[in-house]
Amino acid sequence: MEHYVPILVYTLVAISFPIVALLMAKVIRAGSPDPVKAEPYECGVKTSTVAFDTRFSIRYYLIAVLFVIFDVETIFLFPWAVSFDRLALFGFIEMMVFLAILLVGYVYAWRRGALEWA
Amino acid sequence: MPEPILQLLLIPLIKIVVLLVVVLLIVAYLTYAERKILAYMQVRLGPNRVGPKGWLQPVADGLKLFVKEDLVPGGAEKLVFMIAPAIVMVPALVMFAVVPFGEPFKVAGISVTPYLADINIAILFILGVSSLGVFGIILGGWSSNNKFSLMGGLRSAAQMVSYEIPMGFAVASAVLMAGTLSMVGIVEAQRTAQWWFMFPGILGFGIYWVCGVAETNRNPFDLPEAEAELVAGFHTEYSGMKFALFYLAEYANMMIVSAMAVVLFCGGWLPPFPNLLAGLWALPVLAWIPGAFWFLAKMSFFLFCYIWFRGTFPRYRFDQLMNVGWKWLFPLSLANVMLVALGVLLLKG
């Protein structure tokens, strides 16, 4: 517990850093607002649509889904890696089976073209 | 003053102040070093007007960013637009809490550790907190009401999550060799093993470093900020202090990736070749050099590599970037974990 209190205090200080910086800047910075300045940077002509209407590739979602699956896999690796000394051969075989199952999923995703970006 | 108050209150507070000052100072002078080194690589002089040889350039930059007008684009989500830089900056600073900069030493009879906390889940803490930064980047890109920023934010998020997986595997291979998640414990394990983990784990080290460069959106993986196609990516619309926060966070993240590389694979604060070289001729000499020096020297080397890459490599295309991450680094890092596990099993029996 005594190790986590300094981290908590430090986190609070770290959170206050951007707040203090932004407040200080607010006091001393220059400011002459103008509707032309507030135009989003695009090409110089007045923008006809808002940016949220822009379409983007569905593959970003696909990458996000793949990430969730395989990142959970990494999280499983850490407790196993820490106690690997005690688990020895049993732990090794268990983890190889687990990784092999996920490898099948990875090969499936690859074969179905989920990793292609075009 | 009674001992517990001193130990629990005063020393951590002093350490917090010192840590923040040191980190922000290194970050400020990293920007100066980057401009200077890039300039020399391109046969220019770089900043040399503010102060002797331009040493005060970071101060001038900071002052300029403080007084710059802060523009919020029309149609932006104002609240999200304002807190996005803070969401990027805070995790970048918080991660330094568990980085061990050196060995414990004694000042006036009190043992002081040159790190804020040695927790037994330090690696998980860093991996977890570092993932929070991506929220700020995608929120900043989304809330700007700018098409370039939106694409930059999305690209950045996709890139960071893609490279986080091989990075996690590479870190796991170092944890396998050390058998602990504590940063101090990993360095001590390298002292016991008499090897830096980068020698038995050379493949994991390479994967870690490539992923680390990609995670921080630096060249040759700086697609989210690609000037030629996305102007500045997720921070096109940011100016003044908000831009400065994004900028500082990027450099703080570079420091964290370098510090992690030093702790996991390069022996942390240990002198080169712990015990082997030290046992021969170098013991009296190396014993005088404090561990923090070795740590900072190794970290500086990795930071120099960042700048070196920027001065050398052209930028990837986005499909190439995703291919490298998913089709090369992912299977390679998986094979690396299996190989390291087999090696540890055979050696430790």
Question: Could you characterize the architecture of this molecule?
Answer:
- The complex is a heterodimer of chains A (118) and B (349).
- Chain A is mostly helical.
- Chain A has a single domain, classed as Methane Monooxygenase Hydroxylase, Chain G, domain 1 (Up-down Bundle), CATH 1.20.58.
- Chain A is built from three helices and no strands.
- Chain A has helices at residues 4-28, 59-82, 84-111.
- In chain A, α2 (59-82) runs antiparallel to α3.
- Chain B is mostly helical and 349 residues long.
- Chain B has one domain (73-348).
- Chain B has twelve helices and two strands; from the N terminus they run αααββααααααααα.
- A two-stranded antiparallel sheet of chain B has the order 1-2.
- In chain B, a hairpin with a 2-residue loop joins β1 and β2.
- In chain B, α1 (3-41) packs parallel to α11.
- The model of chain B has no long low-confidence stretch (mean pLDDT 84).
- Classes of the chains: A mainly alpha (118), B mainly alpha (349).
- At the A-B interface, α1, α2 and α3 of A face α1, α2, α3, α4 and α5 of B.
Mean pLDDT of chain B: 84
CATH topology title of chain A: Methane Monooxygenase Hydroxylase, Chain G, domain 1
What helical percentage do the residues of chain A reach? 55-70%
Q: Please report the total strand number of chain B as a whole number.
A: 2
**Percent of residues in β-strands of chain A:** under 5%
Main sheet specs of chain A: none
Q: Which H/E pattern describes the elements of chain A?
A: HHH
Strand order in the sheet with the most strands of chain B: 1-2
- Name the chain pair with the biggest interface and residue counts per chain: A-B, 66 and 83 residues
Rg of chain A, Cα atoms, Å = 25 Å
Low-pLDDT segments of chain B: none
The SS-based structural class of chain B is mainly alpha
Q: What is the domain total for the residues of chain B? A: 1
Q: Based on the structure, what is the oligomeric state of the protein chains?
A: heterodimer
Count of helical stretches of chain B: 12
Query: What's the number of structural domains of chain A?
Result: 1
| Radius of gyration of chain B over all CA atoms, rounded | 21 Å
**What is the CATH C level class of chain A, in words?**
Mainly Alpha
Extended strand count of chain A:
0
